[in-house]
Amino acid sequence: VNRPQPLAHDALPSAGADCLVSAFCLESASPDLAAFTRALGHIGRLLRPGGHLLLIGALGITYYMAGDGVKIPTVPVNEAQVCASLKESGYTLIRLEVYTVPQDMNVGTDDAYGVFFVKAMKE
Ligand SMILES: C[S@@+](CC[C@H](N)C(=O)[O-])C[C@H]1O[C@@H](n2cnc3c(N)ncnc32)[C@H](O)[C@@H]1O
């Protein structure tokens, strides 16, 4: 997702995909908010105009543990930043839902305060 063309050029129909699903990837693959926004633009190139993006991600997350002592740094984003990044990358937001993580579910594997669920359309 850090590359302008994330997949081989013949991996999808030339018109682009109807729908793309990305879950808990962009905030872990992006070093900062600018890279998060660029990644949204990169994956958007895989979609046909009018195609839909279902994007799921963690809110406010700065790290997650991927195994014993393996701490993966992440970019913390909030709802407003996700909306702004989508707009900047050529999507129309259709729906945004947020799940707030209850305190007692925080067991130390990450520091997200919530999860966002987005449905957006590629312009
Ligand atoms: C927290 S895991 C989420 C895995 C899975 N999508 C899920 O929801 O359970 C983050 C995933 O992001 C993906 N990822 C990390 N860097 C990436 C990159 N530069 N390009 C594409 N995918 C990447 C890897 O597959 C990694 O397993």
TrEMBL record:
GO terms for cellular component: cytosol. Belongs to the class I-like SAM-binding methyltransferase superfamily. NNMT/PNMT/TEMT family. The keyword Methyltransferase applies. The keyword Lipid metabolism does not apply. InterPro entries: NNMT_TEMT_trans, SAM-dependent_MTases_sf. Keywords: Methyltransferase, S-adenosyl-L-methionine, Transferase. This is Phenylethanolamine N-methyltransferase. Pfam families: NNMT_PNMT_TEMT.
